[in-house]
């Protein structure tokens, strides 16, 4: 790595790139400090300065970039490939509508999250709006408005997920991990 990067924790210049899940991260080889932690919203140019940049301020303006964002978000959330395909399909359908194609990059970014969130809800996958907004560095109010419009435009019937369902799903996943045999 470049000798310009310095660990803010121990001062070491031994910074290495490490792949974690679907995202790369920069890690201090001496103390283990994570300089960039799988930033979904980082571009390489900004990694040189170790700064985060949201997608809405980045240069990715074409639809292929937005489709990649759908896949990236699915990978970060470790969703099954069926979910990825559904979310991409929803994005392709939604972006053809003027209410989503002629909008700011920030709203398109929220649309990416809405496609993934709606897919998860349809499959009873425990994902909250808060989690999506956190990963996208998005405004919760804008996300909620965009999500309601997304559901209306695509005429999707998405079940709500109760808190009890979410807790039950999380607990079942832990039980499967801890007790893999019946």
UniProtKB/TrEMBL annotation:
Domain TFIIB-type: 3-36
Segments traversing the membrane: none
Coiled coil: none
Compartments it resides in: Nucleus
Keywords assigned by UniProt, alphabetized: Activator, Metal-binding, Nucleus, Repeat, Transcription, Transcription regulation, Zinc, Zinc-finger
GO cellular component: nucleus; transcription preinitiation complex
One of the protein's GO biological processes: transcription preinitiation complex assembly
InterPro entries listed in its UniProt record: Cyclin-like_sf, TFIIB, Znf_TFIIB
Gene3D superfamilies named in the record: 2.20.25.10, Cyclin-like
Superkingdom field: Eukaryota
GO MF, any single term: zinc ion binding
Function comment: General activator of RNA polymerase III transcription. Factor exclusively required for RNA polymerase III transcription of genes with promoter elements upstream of the initiation sites. Contributes to the regulation of gene expression; functions as activator in the absence of oxidative stress. Down-regulates expression of target genes in response to oxidative stress. Overexpression protects cells against apoptosis in response to oxidative stress.
Protein family membership: Belongs to the TFIIB family.
Name of this protein: Transcription factor IIIB 50 kDa subunit
